[in-house]
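Q: What would this chain look like folded?
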Amino acid sequence: MVLVVELYYSMSEFENSVKNLKNSIETSETQKIQSFYHLCKKYNIEPIVLRLCGDIKNRLIRTSYSITFTTTRVIISKKSNLRNIMDIGYVAGLGPYLYYLVSDKVKLDDIKLKNSFIQKLSIDSSSTNEFYIEYDDVDKLVLYHGIETLRTNMLGSLVIDNVVKIFIHKKNSYEFIISARKNGDYEKIFYWLNRVLPIKVEKE
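A: My prediction, written as structure tokens:
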């Protein structure tokens, strides 16, 4: 019971701090994002910062994963077949608190805690179905423009897939095919990856 009360007051203080930060007209968007990370560290919480949907191709089979960026790490989770079927549309985006901070399209009262934080506290980093990479172990993240998947018809041209590659210190990299239909276009993905992640982000 004591822990629940402490958590309530901690989240209440955190939300008030985020609200004050959002309303600060003298603070730039970049400064707000940096301050958001400091607040999360201060209150010892790990909200979702950004989420992408990516596939790993093995021969003829593509396995789908959720790529969840938090304030401290990136969590790679294999999607179930049912969830993959349900995710037929746009599934990427900023985490609720960060979206609230940089946009006027969401109200603080509309944010649901279960959609804002990592629900599973313990993750086996050696598992192939779900694992995580600490930002301290990441050399860089590179977003590759999938020009080779360009499709053209009478309505215009569209890149079908892009690629995200996460380079790890002295280890193999992780490469994911990023559907433009589910994650957005190349420039928008790069803009937000580069804007909100505390790691080196490049594009090619």
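The domain at 2-203 is CATH 2.30.29.30 (PH-domain like).
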